[in-house]
Design a protein that fits this description.
The chain has 364 residues and is α/β, with parallel strands linked by helices. It has one domain: Alpha-Beta Barrel (TIM Barrel). It is built from 15 helices and 10 strands. Helix 1 packs parallel to helix 3, helix 3 runs parallel beside helix 11 and helix 9 packs parallel to helix 10. The longest helix is centred in the middle third of the chain and has 18 residues.
């Protein structure tokens, strides 16, 4: 109780909590007290505490053929496997046009991530981004994890910064936060052996921020990590944000264990999901936005998270495949109106945005 009181005093005086404080919160079962602290921190760290953001987005995964074949991934395939696929740029453009047409105001976000295949190189993606931007000026493109950027750099034989500059010139607006998993390289060697290590992931993000590309940050939890690993992960993100200010949101990703090789030793419950979201809000005092992805948590539970530090429900996520392959919640087609109703039902104000948060369309 004495420790919780000390943490409360820090939060209510708008001071930082430290790693020891965060670990205490993860080990605490007082979810109501943790939620109250997150709600308080929202008052100073969120852009507008009464607003909740969402986007109208389409998920584009050009191929599931991937050379890494991480043990945590249920999405990837080898060439020739049942279910392996490769989309052409023409196929992708047709789907983007359909998404634009189905949006009431034409504003959509194209979210592009996929397998690591040499067929999908820098030239392919530069052409794809330019083609998407030609469809409409109302399309925002959030694409390529730090892992993909590093892979494209290796394929092209040029540095990460140059890759980012070329993609930005072709139309890239923001990077997603995928591939972060958990910042413990011993664990990474087990769950995603071939992926870039912690320092490399952080370096890609730093380079993106330095040339004006905003990014998300993620953390995959509920597998073989400890509470201490979670705290270290959050601490490294907070340190980089202090340095660059380029992270637009933090996205906790609950681990789903269907069709994967990882033998998990912990399981995320709804209680744990709320804890991660709330502690992220409390600890990441320099992050404006915390997402509670409805396709990971379910609509109603994501709504609950809006009172535990979250202020963004993610997007409509048309054709999301990666999380769904591992058993994530899949309610079918989520319409913009569904997200607005959930936000209204929580007594919050719905605001349509995109990955940059520059677009803000307030719904009455």
């Amino acid at each position: 109780m004495k420790k919780m009181k000390s943490i409360k005093e820090k939060v209510y005086s708008n001071a930082r909590i430290d790693a020891e404080d965060a670990l205490y919160l993860f080990e605490s079962n007082d979810i109501i007290a943790i939620g109250e602290l997150a709600a308080r921190r929202m008052q100073t760290s969120a852009p507008a505490p009464e607003e909740v953001y969402y986007s109208y987005n389409i998920n584009i995964n050009p191929t599931n053929i991937c050379g890494h074949r991480c043990k945590l991934c249920a999405f990837s395939k080898d060439a020739g496997d049942d279910g392996a696929y490769e989309e052409s740029a023409v196929d992708i453009i047709q789907r983007v046009k359909a998404a634009v047409k189905s949006s009431a105001d034409g504003h959509i976000e194209a979210h592009i991530v996929g397998g690591l295949s040499p067929k999908y190189d820098l030239s392919f993606y530069e052409g794809l981004l330019r083609s998407i931007k030609k469809i409409s000026r109302k399309i925002t493109i959030q694409a390529f994890t730090a892992v993909e950027i590093d892979y494209l750099s290796s394929l092209a034989g040029i540095g990460v910064t140059k890759i980012l500059e070329k993609l930005k010139a072709a139309g890239l607006d923001a990077l997603p936060g995928g591939g972060a998993e958990i910042f413990n390289d011993k664990i990474r060697s087990v769950i995603c052996e071939k992926k870039i290590r912690t320092d490399a992931w952080l370096d890609v993000m730093k380079k993106a921020h330095q040339i004006g590309i905003p990014t998300n940050a993620t953390m995959l939890y509920g597998h073989i990590e400890t509470d201490g690993d979670r705290v270290k992960h959050l601490e490294l993100l907070r340190n980089l944000q202090d340095d660059t200010g380029g992270f637009k949101s933090f996205v906790p990703l609950a681990f789903y264990g269907e069709n994967v090789e990882v033998k998990r030793n912990r399981y995320n419950s709804g209680f744990d999901d709320l804890k991660v979201i709330a502690i992220a809000r409390i600890f990441l005092d320099n992050f404006s936005n915390i997402k509670a992805l409805h396709n990971m948590l379910g609509l109603k539970f994501a709504q609950t998270a809006l009172y535990f530090g979250a202020n963004d429900l993610g997007g409509t996520s048309f054709d999301e495949r990666i999380a769904r392959a591992a058993g994530a919640y899949s309610p079918g087609l989520i319409r913009e109106s569904d997200l607005v109703k959930i936000i209204d039902g929580a007594g919050k104000k719905a605001v349509k945005t995109d990955s940059t948060y520059l677009l803000k369309i307030r719904r009455s």
